[in-house]
Amino acid sequence: MAEWLRTVSPVDGSVLVERPLAGPAALDRALVQARRAYTDWRREPLEARMALATAWVNAITAQTDVLAQE
Fold this sequence. Notes:
By secondary structure, this protein is of the alpha+beta class. 60% of the residues lie in helices and 16% in strands. It contains three helices and two strands, in the order ββααα. The chain has helices spanning 24-43, 46-61, 64-69; strands spanning 4-8, 15-20. The longest helix is centred in the middle third of the chain and has 20 residues, at 24-43. The protein starts with a strand and ends with a helix. The mean pLDDT is 92.
């Protein structure tokens, strides 16, 4: 049986979101994918990594109203 992470509102105690926690196999897959992604990422020129990071920050800050609700 999967364990769940529950986010509870401090205002009224209601459950805002429930998500299953990853098990060992899912964590192993995620680590393999992260290592693979890091290998590719570190080969990118610094300027390209900076441009991607800046674009990500801009995309996140454009969504502050939606993210604040999350």
